[in-house]
Design brief:
Layout (H helix, E strand, L loop, with lengths): L2 H4 L3 H29 L1 H8 L21 H17 L3 H14 L4 H17 L3 H14 L3 H14 L2 H14 L2 H6 L1 H15 L1
């Protein structure tokens, strides 16, 4: 066999990497949303509210049941991912936008959806569009994650000064408890700033 026939075609390799990245992102999103739903204090901290999710977000309006946001969000992200992997960028983004339009009162879910849209646009090398979605995520739910997305997109676009600015804010917002409980994540965040500064 020739050396060339043993190589993975670039498109197939790119799709595999995209699928792995999306799978990991969905897993992280699922964990965050699950924690927000099952632990009211986490929900309150994430949303900045002093009340539990409204009954309109609970299954069948029953206040004793937990909201089913996790499976609904995962399904929408999965459907959009399928569209993207099939080469239908606009269709995938539209599915996410339609879902975001229905979740306007749910700040965390909006941020998750917009960050997904930003990542999709960045992967498609539509950097200005990606920045717009990441900025929407930042408005919906200001967090170090949205700052990292803005930094990553700026760096991919070649705008190192903007990336440095966003990464610095990301490090300022990084949760103190995560610095010790998940030092590898904090070190990764620091490495993003160093990468932009090089």
């Amino acid at each position: 066999m020739s050396h060339q026939s043993q190589q993975t075609p670039p498109v197939r390799h790119h799709k595999k990497l995209l699928l792995i990245a999306i799978g990991l992102l969905v897993l992280v999103i699922a964990i965050v949303v699950y924690l927000a739903i099952t632990n009211p204090s986490v929900f309150q901290r994430l949303t900045g509210t002093k009340e539990s999710p409204s009954s309109s977000q609970t299954s069948a309006g029953n206040p004793d049941q937990k909201p089913n946001v996790l499976s609904e969000t995962d399904k929408v992200i999965g459907d959009a991912t399928t569209s993207l992997l099939n080469g239908n960028y606009e269709e995938g983004q539209q599915k996410l936008q339609s879902y975001a339009d229905k979740r306007t009162g749910d700040k965390l879910t909006l941020a998750i959806i917009y960050l997904n849209m930003a990542g999709n646009a960045q992967d498609a090398k539509k950097y200005d569009e990606a920045l717009g979605y990441a900025q929407k995520a930042e408005v919906a739910y200001p967090d170090y994650v949205s700052m990292q997305a803005l930094g990553d997109i700026s760096l991919a676009k070649g705008d190192k000064p903007a990336a440095i600015k966003y990464y610095k804010v990301m490090l300022e917002r990084f949760p103190e408890d995560k610095k010790t409980s998940m030092p590898f994540e904090y070190e990764f965040a620091q490495s993003k700033l160093k990468e932009a500064q090089s």
